[in-house]
């Protein structure tokens, strides 16, 4: 079985654990607007490995939106960012793109992982 060409995971750096139960939406930009191409909820390890079907990736601007507000609220914490949009550009459709999120209630960091 082929893997999703785009994957993600979230690590809650404030508690040193994966962020489980976070909804994530993947969109592709076309003609100035975004269309959903995949979505999921992070598993117990904070990962989503099946955002989209293999062979469906196209070049262009994509956006992952991490809906972290409910996750933080459910863990008894207030956060500053209820949603975190991460916009990135796909150039080569034969590569794998892993876009992790390092999260704490008042900040975040992201990078292209492997």
User: Would you identify the regions where 5 or more consecutive residues have pLDDT less than 50?
Assistant: none
What is the CA-CA span between the terminal residues?
19 Å
The amount of beta strand, in percent, is over 45%
Domains, number: 1
- What is CATH's topology name? Immunoglobulin-like
Helix content: under 10%
Using the coordinates above, name the CATH class: Mainly Beta
Provide a count of the helices: 1
> Which sheet architecture does the biggest sheet show?
6 strands, mixed
Oligomeric state of the chains in view: single chain
User: For the residues shown, what is the average pLDDT?
Assistant: 95
CATH superfamily: Transthyretin/hydroxyisourate hydrolase domain
Q: Which structural class is indicated by helix and strand composition? A: mainly beta
Tell me how many strands there are: 10
Q: What is Rg?
A: 14 Å
The run of helices and strands is: EEEEEEHEEEE
């Amino acid at each position: 079985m082929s893997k999703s060409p785009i994957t993600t995971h979230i690590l809650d750096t404030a508690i040193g654990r994966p962020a489980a139960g976070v909804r994530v939406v993947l969109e592709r930009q076309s003609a100035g607007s975004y269309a959903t191409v995949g979505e999921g909820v992070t598993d117990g390890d904070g990962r989503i490995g099946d955002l989209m079907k293999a062979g469906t990736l196209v070049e262009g601007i994509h956006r992952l939106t991490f809906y972290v507000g409910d996750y933080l609220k459910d863990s008894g914490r207030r956060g500053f960012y209820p949603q975190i949009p991460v916009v990135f550009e796909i150039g080569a459709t034969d590569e794998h793109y892993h876009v992790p999120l390092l999260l704490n209630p008042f900040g975040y960091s992201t990078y292209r992982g492997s």
